[in-house]
Automatic annotation (TrEMBL):
<keyword id="KW-0328">Glycosyltransferase</keyword>
<protein>
    <submittedName>
        <fullName>Glycolipid 2-alpha-mannosyltransferase</fullName>
    </submittedName>
</protein>
<dbReference type="Pfam" id="PF01793">
    <property type="entry name" value="Glyco_transf_15"/>
</dbReference>
<feature type="region of interest" description="Disordered">
    <location>
        <begin position="41"/>
        <end position="62"/>
    </location>
</feature>
<dbReference type="GO" id="GO:0000026">
    <property type="term" value="F:alpha-1,2-mannosyltransferase activity"/>
</dbReference>
<keyword id="KW-0808">Transferase</keyword>
<feature type="active site" description="Nucleophile">
    <location>
        <position position="268"/>
    </location>
</feature>
<keyword id="KW-1133">Transmembrane helix</keyword>
<dbReference type="InterPro" id="IPR002685">
    <property type="entry name" value="Glyco_trans_15"/>
</dbReference>
<dbReference type="GO" id="GO:0000032">
    <property type="term" value="P:cell wall mannoprotein biosynthetic process"/>
</dbReference>
<keyword id="KW-0812">Transmembrane</keyword>
<feature type="transmembrane region" description="Helical">
    <location>
        <begin position="12"/>
        <end position="30"/>
    </location>
</feature>
<dbReference type="GO" id="GO:0005794">
    <property type="term" value="C:Golgi apparatus"/>
</dbReference>
<keyword id="KW-0472">Membrane</keyword>
<dbReference type="InterPro" id="IPR029044">
    <property type="entry name" value="Nucleotide-diphossugar_trans"/>
</dbReference>
<dbReference type="GO" id="GO:0006487">
    <property type="term" value="P:protein N-linked glycosylation"/>
</dbReference>
<comment type="similarity">
    <text>Belongs to the glycosyltransferase 15 family.</text>
</comment>
Length: 364
C-alpha cells in the first residue's frame, strides 16, 4: 500500500508537481477556449467563400406550396440518399421544402429511415393505386407480351419501365399526397447537382409566370416512339382548340416530323396546373388509349415535351442553365461556373451545348 506523506516530500518534487498541475490546467483552459467542446460542426468552407449577403439564411416569405417528388424503388435507397445529400447541400437545407416519395410497393422501414436521416424537412411516403400502375383493360396482353419478348432497345423488355413512364406521364401529379401542391421539382436517384443555388426556383417561376422549367434537352431514341408523333398529330386534329396560338412546336418539329428533342424529365420544375389542365388530360387520355406506352416505349420525357410545345408559349418555359446537373449517362456544367465559384464541375468537359436540342432552344 502506498502512503501519501506530504510532510516528507522534498521541495524538489513539490516544484515538479506544481509545474505539472499548471501545464495540465493550462491545456484544458486553452482547449475549451479555442476548439470548443460543443459538438456543433463548423460552417463548410463553401459557405464562407460567398459574401454573406448573397446566400439566403432562411426560406423566402413568399414561398409556394411545393415539394421535391420522386417515384422510387426500395432498391434505389443508396442512390436516393446521394441525391438528397446533394439537394440538401446545394439548396434545401436553407429552403426546407418537403420530400414526397412514391412507390408501387410499400416502402421498407430501412428506406424510410435512410432518407429521413438526411434531412430536417418533412418527408412523406405514398403508394400507388391499381389504375396508375398497371395495364389498362384495353391493352392486348398478347401483343404486349410479344413486345416484351422481342424489343431490342434499352428497357424495351421491362414491363415495369413501361408502367413507370406511363405513371410519370399521366398519374404522378394526381397522387393524393400532391393534392395541395402548386409546384413540384422532380428528383431521381443517383443524380448530382453541381452548383450552389442561392435563390428559390419555385418563387422565381411563380414571379415570372413560368409553367415549365428544364435544364437538359437531349435527343430521343426514335425506336422507342415510332407512332408517338402520328398519334400527337391525330390529337391536334381532334382538339385544335387545345393548341396554343404562339406555341413552341417549332422546338420539336422539323420538316413536319418530330425531331426527338425532349426536356430530360428526370429533372423538371412544373406548375402543376399545367398537368392538371383539360388540355394535358385530354392529351394523356388520347395517348393512353392509343397504347404506345405498352406496344412501344413512349417515355414521359417526349410526352411532357410535346405537351409543353403544343400548350405553352416560349415565355412560359424556363431554361435553368444555372442548375448544373448530372444523371447517369450525361450532365452539364453551367458556362459561368468558373467565374461564379459556385459549381463543382468543368464546363469544358460537360458543356451545355454538347446536346443539339439545347442549341435549338436558343433559335426557336
Ligand atoms: N417504385 C418504382 N419506381 C420505379 C420503378 N422503375 C423505375 N422507378 C423509378 O422511376 C425513376 C426512373 O427510373 P430509372 O430506372 O432511373 O430510369 P431512367 O432514368 O430512364 O434510366 C427512378 O426514380 C426509379 O427509382 C418501379 O418498378 N417501381
Ligand atoms: C400556376 O399556373 C396557373 C395557371 O396558369 C396560375 O393561375 C397560377 O397562378 C400559377 N401558380 C403559381 C403559384 O404561380
Ligand atoms: C403516320 O400516319 C400516316 C398517315 O395517316 C401514315 O401514312 C404513316 O404510315 C404513319 N406512320 C407511322 C410510323 O405509323
Ligand atoms: Mg433515372
Amino acid at each position: 500500500m502506498i502512503k501519501f506523506a506530504p510532510r516528507r516530500m522534498s521541495s524538489f518534487i513539490q516544484v515538479i508537481l506544481l509545474a505539472l498541475i499548471c501545464i495540465i490546467g493550462l491545456h484544458f483552459f486553452l482547449k475549451s477556449d479555442s476548439t470548443s467542446v460543443s459538438v456543433k460542426a463548423p460552417e463548410p468552407a463553401e459557405f464562407k467563400q460567398q459574401p454573406s449577403e448573397e446566400r439566403p439564411k432562411e426560406p423566402a416569405k413568399n414561398r409556394v406550396k411545393a415539394a421535391l417528388v420522386s417515384l422510387v424503388r426500395n432498391t434505389d435507397l443508396h442512390g436516393m440518399r446521394q441525391t438528397i445529400r446533394e439537394i440538401e447541400d446545394r439548396f434545401n437545407r436553407v429552403y426546407k421544402y418537403p420530400y414526397i416519395f412514391l412507390n408501387d410497393v410499400p416502402f421498407t422501414d430501412e428506406f424510410k429511415k435512410g432518407v429521413k436521416d438526411l434531412t430536417d424537412s418533412e418527408v412523406s411516403f405514398g403508394i400507388l393505386d391499381d389504375e396508375s400502375w398497371g395495364t389498362p383493360d384495353w391493352i392486348d396482353e398478347k401483343k404486349l407480351q410479344h413486345v416484351l419478348d422481342t424489343a431490342d432497345y434499352i428497357n424495351g423488355r421491362s414491363r415495369s419501365y413501361k408502367y413507370m413512364c406511363r405513371f410519370q406521364s399521366g398519374y404522378i401529379y394526381k397522387h393524393p399526397l400532391l393534392k395541395d401542391l402548386e409546384f413540384y421539382w422532380r428528383i431521381e436517384p443517383d443524380v448530382k447537382y453541381y452548383c450552389q443555388l442561392d435563390y428559390d426556383p419555385f418563387v422565381y417561376m411563380k414571379e415570372n409566370n413560368k409553367m415549365y422549367g428544364f435544364n437538359m434537352a437531349p435527343n430521343e431514341y426514335m425506336v422507342t416512339i415510332p407512332t408517338l408523333w402520328n398519334t400527337t398529330k391525330a390529337f391536334m386534329k381532334e382538339y385544335p382548340q387545345h393548341v396554343a396560338k404562339n406555341n413552341l412546336l417549332e422546338f420539336a418539329v422539323e420538316n413536319g416530323d418530330y425531331n426527338g428533342c425532349h426536356f430530360w424529365t428526370n429533372f423538371e420544375i412544373v406548375n402543376l396546373s399545367f398537368y392538371r389542365s383539360k388540355q394535358y388530360e385530354d392529351y394523356f387520355k388520347f395517348l393512353d388509349r392509343a397504347g404506345g406506352f405498352f406496344y412501344e416505349r413512349w417515355g414521359d420525357a417526349p410526352v411532357h415535351t410535346l405537351a409543353v410545345t403544343m400548350f405553352l408559349r416560349k415565355d412560359q418555359v424556363h431554361y435553368f442553365g444555372d442548375i448544373g446537373y448530372y444523371h447517369p449517362a450525361m450532365g452539364f456544367c453551367p458556362k459561368n461556373s468558373k467565374s461564379s465559384g459556385k459549381c463543382v464541375c468543368d464546363p469544358d468537359k460537360e458543356n451545355e451545348f454538347n446536346y443539339g436540342c439545347r442549341r435549338r432552344w436558343d433559335i426557336v
